[in-house]
Amino acid sequence: MVELLSQSHNQQVSVVWFKRDLRLNDHRPLYEACQRGKVICLYCFEPSVWQARDADGSHFRFVIESLEELREGLRARGGELVVRVGEMLEVLEELWKAVGFQTLWSHEETGNLLTFDRDKQVQNWVTARGVAWREIPQTGVVRGLRSRDGWARLWKQRMAEPLTETPDRILSPCRLDPGNLPNAHTLGLAESTKLAAQKGGAKLAEETLHSFLVERGVGYRKEMSSPLTGEASCSRLSPYLAWGNLSIREVFQSTRDRVMDVRYAKEEGRPLDKRWAQSLSSFEGRLRWHCHFMQKFEDEPAIEFENMNRAYDGLRENEFREDRFEAWCRGETGYPMVDACMRALHQTGWINFRMRAMLVSFASYHLWLHWRQTAVFLARHFLDYEPGIHYSQFQMQSGVTGINTLRIYSPAKQVLDQDPEGEFLRRFCPELEGVPKVYLAEPHRMPASLQQHVGCRIGKDYPRPVVVHREAYAMARQRMGEVRKRPEVRAESLKVQERHGSRRRGTRRRK
Ligand SMILES: Cc1cc2nc3c(=O)[nH]c(=O)nc-3n(C[C@H](O)[C@H](O)[C@H](O)COP(=O)(O)OP(=O)(O)OC[C@H]3O[C@@H](n4cnc5c(N)ncnc54)[C@H](O)[C@@H]3O)c2cc1C
Questions:
Q1: Exposure check for the chain: N or C terminus, fewer CB within 10 A?
Q2: Prediction pTM value
Q3: Same domain membership, residue 67 and residue 86
């Protein structure tokens, strides 16, 4: 299909619909459209998408920053970014009447139910108008996958495909009003409050990739789990991948090149930090996870709302406690690691994987909150919100897949393991500034006189624990243990494994 698509045709007019692929490099729909003739590059701000419960002003700002750069890049090539605010069908209809395009180009999107339904409407619209819609994959996610057997091989093939050339000339059909980039209020969004969030754009994305591969990533394997070291040692590529400032194929191929550099350096006896080989190998694994988790969502979009393993239905549904939820959302649970991570998210929109897992574990086990509410809250707060990864991970960390090991994190142990000096805690919970190190993991254990002395009175300056760890932990283990023993849970787990479980190296699952 690749060859066929690349052949040049008569001068056509195409619309390239930019979605979560805000870049010029390795952008196959743009390249294919340019090969065929005139191109309208469209970004549509759909009010239904931006007013949805999982959207946030920080996402919006990141997209605006990305679009500013994209527009500049298109103009430098003779093209234009046409920006519209409106529902996609209305916008398509308006453009079709004005220009009469024949083809709509876009990347495939593994989005939430809202965008999935929107895409179905677009499909009906193009069929009715006789417009061809060419959707091209941009990740390792395989649409219409029948079985997970052999998926890893397909993923590798996708990642090995050559990067698509960036067109150097873009022909526009006629003078269309380019449209201004809207502000957050136009879309009913509050301005982003995440003043320390990463900024959008393909240039920054490339710089971030480069600095990780040649400098920051050396200690990745050992340092990724601490929120303190992870800040610099993790790649920080997630928002760029989520909004498409970079293609995952480019990240994968750059990583491969770096792996080869490291190998040659070793063979040639050149000095190089030994940690690189292991760190790069761990990182490559994460790139595969990116698509592995998204594939689950592609195959079963219902997991945005329903337990992957339906035998867990009813486990938490009727026990939602608003007060607990609010304390968790605000970062006021009385457990410093939970609170510091949540407050870090409020300011930056990012936290490392281990701490995301701990936040969810605390909400789902200690507070016994249903993942449906907590997932939407964090979707808004993660700058890198990617529905496919997000809901699959959320269900896994909440113990409702039936195929993953039960992991209930102790927030106090995470302090000792990941931030023993309390540097991260004190940065995001300044009220703990004077608390002696020995009490930092559980400040409520300080004697009252010491609380007074260090200016951190529990219940006044810093919250009292919202639950007692030991009790909540024991209760959660017991309840999960009971459910997991039920025959219907086991039977359903086998089905989940068959449908979504990873098969190492593409081999068949053992029967
Ligand atoms: C409950 C929960 C929700 C999550 N929601 C999201 C989300 O909405 N968007 C998102 O991009 N990641 C999500 N993650 C996965 C992971 O935490 C982030 O990808 C990672 O922390 C981003 O930082 P980084 O780019 O520096 O990651 P790195 O460690 O440098 O990894 C590089 C890339 O690999 C991918 N990746 C890394 N870890 C994972 C993982 N565990 N699962 C799938 N892909 C992974 C990401 O694309 C990431 O950018 C979630 C994890 C949990 C536990």
A1: C
A2: 0.96
A3: yes
